[in-house]
Design a protein that fits this description.
19 strands
Length: about 625
């Protein structure tokens, strides 16, 4: 792979003349090209089977209006040759995601998807939700479209298979069963209410169900229920009946469960009014594991084939593709995309555009969802645009803001303090851009909101100046909303001046008279506070922004507090693994009792050597 950097723009012509000047230096190698403007900003990234032939197409007139605009803005180009066209395709999509060029189709919201993990690093495996790299030992099932879809499935699987979902540390410290055992959601392995062999059989049943072999599982449970009923073990029969009902609920909640499609993503595209919606349904083990809609950035004259191909390349850049991709629209380079995805997955991946049968019905359903979702989004966007124009008018902004950042703090008397930032724009709340800040300042007075806000904004803008110094990636806010009055606004203005940032408008939102919602006062630097009319839609919009920031801050704070409450200090002692922790907890009853024990008592615990007893004692007493 070799790269040629030809970005010198001092005397180079632009447009067609610029592109033509590169032709004599190019050959027929496959590769990736970048078109840049006069400020060396990337306008477009493309791939080519033959770089010279592809670039020569741009050197001749006769393109769509979008491409004509792009050519006029082109002041330089960069080229990177690859060994194969497949490699060029993968590199192209990777660069598009990194550089976000102006004229490319861009998948803007590309989060990871949750899985269900049956962890296998414990004698009694735990079933839980998992997101991110599959580094933990165990069996993974997914992806599911959302955390809600996983949680609903886990809830029913707990009822059906009675598998534990508690952490290993909690499992090891139990001396009596928890509430989940009482309400028949767990078989109580922590206190020996089920043998290791019986629990392992339940784990196998759960894995068979998640792998699509649900009929066999339900038949076995039905046979056991019949046996229990004949033996007049009515309580056991009722428990088995409830487990069968839970499995049925999982399947009915999934809606469409295709018989002829074992593993596929159904991907449907609807385009209207210069916007696009891609709907993805995840079919695994002949079960529908939910759907998610995406709204790629497209130009006014981009065709469905280009949008679909760009979506596939970017969507599967960091995800394992299933065995089949069932599409609503064909793509231009189907053979190339098939090869690239098959190489990525290490097995064959098929791309289908069905015309009839069950697969076509699945596409039709996904297409209907895409059409309806885009209609709702376009209606919401029109409303949002009107609100942003009203916001600009209310706060004397030069233009409607494209990116609003709202900040809030949450703590209880200074403990577990967190800062939160939410982001909103023309498409509503931009949840992928939300950020949380664990307050680190050791010199802060507990409950010092000014100090917390200073730390949050300092960290935010220090990072922003590193990541987007030229302000050309769309990461800088057009408006800051701060929870507070004149004091907070002055403090924030001082922080911003310290970073050399004085051109971003900021507004403090104070509760107003009697802290009554609807009587908010708005504070700006060097101006008198003012209020909006009580029934003004812009006021309701600001309240929604502030409430969302407050919700996100409180949720983050509660999660941090819960983690701190459930943390076991024994986990932090070097040399104390699961078995020794069990021995200490069994001997003393709690981690607090271990922390208070003297050295002689620690040495008396079975399995704890004199050296380790000294380590445990020092860990608690040196602190």
């Amino acid at each position: 792979m070799t790269e040629k950097d030809d970005t010198q723009t001092d005397s180079r012509p632009t447009g067609y003349a610029c592109i033509q000047s590169y032709l004599r230096t190019l050959d027929g190698s496959p590769g990736v090209y970048r078109m840049l403007d006069a400020q060396a900003r990337v306008l477009y990234v493309g791939k080519a089977r033959n770089l010279k032939a592809r670039v020569s197409n741009y050197a001749r007139p006769g393109h769509s209006p979008r491409i004509e605009r792009m050519i006029r803005e082109t002041a330089s180009m960069m080229f990177l040759t690859t060994r194969t066209e497949t490699e060029a395709l993968l590199l192209e999509q990777n660069l598009i995601k990194q550089l976000k060029p102006k004229y490319n189709v861009l998948l803007r919201d590309d989060k990871s998807f949750p899985n269900i993990l049956v962890a296998k690093d414990h004698a009694y495996p735990q079933i839980k939700k998992h997101r991110g790299a599959k580094a933990e030992k165990g069996a993974y099932f997914g992806p599911f479209a959302s955390a809600g879809a996983v949680n609903r499935t886990l809830n029913q699987l707990q009822k059906a298979f009675l598998l534990r979902n508690c952490s290993d540390s909690m499992f090891d410290s139990r001396t009596r069963p928890c509430l989940l055992y009482q309400i028949k959601r767990c078989s109580g392995p922590c206190v020996g209410h089920i043998s290791k062999a019986e629990y392992a059989e339940s784990v196998r049943d759960a894995e068979r169900f998640l792998s699509g072999r649900s009929t066999k599982v339900q038949e076995d449970l039905a046979a056991q229920m019949a046996e229990a009923s004949e033996a007049m073990e009515f309580e056991r029969a009722a428990a088995l009946r409830d487990r069968i009902r839970a499995l049925t609920n999982v399947q009915s909640a999934q809606g469409i469960n295709p018989r002829g499609v074992a593993e596929a993503d159904v991907i449907a595209l609807h385009m209207e009014g210069g916007q696009a919606c891609v709907q993805v349904f995840f079919i695994r083990a002949n079960q529908n594991w939910g759907n998610r809609d995406f709204y790629p950035r497209v130009g006014p004259d981009v065709g469905p084939a280009e949008v679909m191909e760009a979506f596939l390349g970017q969507f599967y850049d960091n995800k394992e593709p299933p065995r089949q991709l069932i599409l609503s629209d064909a793509i231009e380079n189907e053979d190339l995309m098939t090869q690239a995805l098959s190489e990525k997955a290490g097995r064959k991946v098929e791309i289908l555009v069905p015309q009839r049968g069950e697969k076509a019905e699945l596409v039709s359903g996904a297409l209907r969802n895409a059409r309806e979702a885009l209609g709702r989004r376009m209606a919401e966007s029109a409303t949002q645009a009107k609100l942003l124009r009203g916001l600009a008018e209310a706060f004397d902004l030069d233009a409607p803001p494209e990116r609003i950042e709202v900040y809030d703090n949450s703590h209880i008397q200074g403990t577990n303090a967190v800062g939160a930032m939410i982001v909103a724009g023309p498409d509503g709340f931009m949840k992928s851009q939300y950020r949380k800040f664990n307050i680190r300042g050791e010199d802060l007075t507990p409950g010092d909101d000014f100090g917390m806000m200073k730390e949050v904004l300092t960290r935010r803008f220090t990072r922003l100046q590193k990541e987007d110094p030229d302000r050309d990636k769309g990461l800088w806010p057009d408006l800051l909303l701060i929870d507070g009055g004149a004091g907070q606004v002055s403090a924030v203005a001082e922080i911003m001046r310290g970073h050399g940032v004085e051109d971003i408008p900021m507004v403090g939102v104070a509760k107003g008279i009697d802290r009554d919602q609807g009587k908010e006062e708005f504070h700006r630097v060097g101006q008198r506070p003012f209020a909006l009319k009580r029934n003004d839609p812009v006021l309701y919009f600001i309240q929604r922004l502030r409430d969302e920031a407050h919700r996100f801050a409180i949720g983050t704070h509660r999660a941090k507090r819960a983690k701190a409450v459930s943390a076991n200090p024994l986990d932090d002692i070097p040399g104390v693994g699961a078995s020794r922790k069990r021995a200490l907890l069994a001997h003393f009853g709690s981690a607090k009792a271990v922390s208070r024990a003297n050295l002689a008592d620690l040495k008396a615990v079975e399995g704890i050597s004199a050296g380790l007893a000294q380590k445990v004692y020092d860990f608690f007493h040196e602190r």
